[in-house]
Design brief:
Elements: E1 4-9, H1 21-34, E2 36-40, H2 58-75, E3 81-83, H3 86-101, H4 103-113, E4 126-128, H5 129-137, H6 139-144, E5 154-157, H7 179-186, E6 190-191, H8 205-208, H9 210-226, E7 231-234, H10 237-245, H11 247-254, E8 262-264, H12 265-272, H13 290-296
Parallel strand pairs: 1-2, 1-3, 3-4, 5-6, 5-7, 7-8
Helix pairs in contact: 1-12, 2-3, 2-4, 3-4, 9-11
Length: 298
């Protein structure tokens, strides 16, 4: 029997062959080493993310998340519902909070779900995978699994805005959360202090107003570089994508020469636990992390 079992909501970007497929692969590898079993929610749907707030109306947005929770409650009763995507976690957690504290909202959502033969019961907690690592394992326990310490690596932990507000990790500061720094250091690397760890990457503005998003991305990378970081690590697929993919565009706009790897905590943990570069899905990076690849090859 697995040490811990959770109901799992992959989300659109982190599902197989999607833009953050490397997040899913490395999470599965990390969970293998931690003896975590993830039971995927059958027929889960998109959370709606930011587009769910635009013109579609509040109820449809909440009903999308309510459906995923209801499916999880039905298929995986008694488990916490865990997401790796920051947007999926935030949307689903918000929907739960709204329905649990407003009877009319809950009744309206269940009226919509009735058409699919589902009902939201409110029996499951909604959590981000980072919460699971911090709250169910803890930094000392995570440290015990390290076989290949990530020595001499200087890493900027980029929390971003979605996994930080309005809920966040229990006991953490909204202005200066340190859980990602603590995970980095538990893996044997050095967590670099810098002033952009909760700055928004610009989100969907990367498409609609790229000049605004690229300014945000520039500030994040520049601060990480200025404080000595060799790579950036994040718990958010959109943060990872924006900060990695748009480095070339930022360089053109501002005359910079950024070329910094942007990875997930799950990739760090997999390598530190003795996993291969393939298990950590390092081949899914646009900016290669040669130092991690070297550690993985030992």
């Amino acid at each position: 029997m697995a040490k811990k079992t959770y109901s799992f909501y992959p989300g659109c970007s982190s599902q197989t062959k999607a833009s953050s497929d490397n997040y899913l692969k490395s999470t599965n590898s990390m969970c293998k080493y931690l003896d975590i079993e993830l039971k995927e929610v059958p027929d889960w749907n998109c959370c709606g993310a930011s587009i769910g707030y635009a013109e579609g109306g509040e109820l449809p947005r909440l009903a999308l998340s309510a459906r995923t929770i209801a499916l999880s409650e039905k298929a995986n009763p008694g488990m916490d519902l865990v997401a790796t995507c920051a947007a999926c976690w935030l949307s689903t957690r918000e929907a739960k909070e709204r329905m649990d504290h407003n009877t009319q909202t809950r009744n309206d959502a269940n009226e919509a779900l009735k058409e699919a033969g589902l009902v939201y019961q409110g029996t499951q907690n909604v959590r981000h995978m980072a919460e699971v690592l911090v709250e169910d394992f803890g930094f000392d326990e995570l440290k015990k699994g390290v076989k290949n310490p990530l020595r001499d690596l200087k890493i900027a932990g980029y929390v971003g805005c979605q996994t930080n507000r309005p809920f966040g990790i229990e006991g953490e500061s909204f202005e200066n959360p340190v859980y990602l720094d603590n995970i980095i250091e538990a893996m044997g690397a050095e967590a670099v202090p810098y002033d952009q760890k909760v700055t928004c990457c610009g989100g969907a503005l990367a498409f609609s107003e790229p000049e605004k998003s690229q300014k945000q991305i520039k500030d994040i990378i520049e601060s990480a570089y200025d404080h000595g970081a060799e790579m950036i690590v994040t718990p958010c697929p959109l943060c990872q994508a924006n900060v990695e993919i748009y480095q070339g565009e930022v360089n053109k706009r501002y005359g910079t020469k950024f070329n910094i790897p942007v990875l997930y905590y799950s990739q760090l943990i997999t390598i530190a636990y003795g996993g291969t570069a393939k298990e950590a899905a390092l081949d899914g990076q646009l900016v290669r992390s040669t130092k991690l690849e070297e550690i993985a090859s030992k």
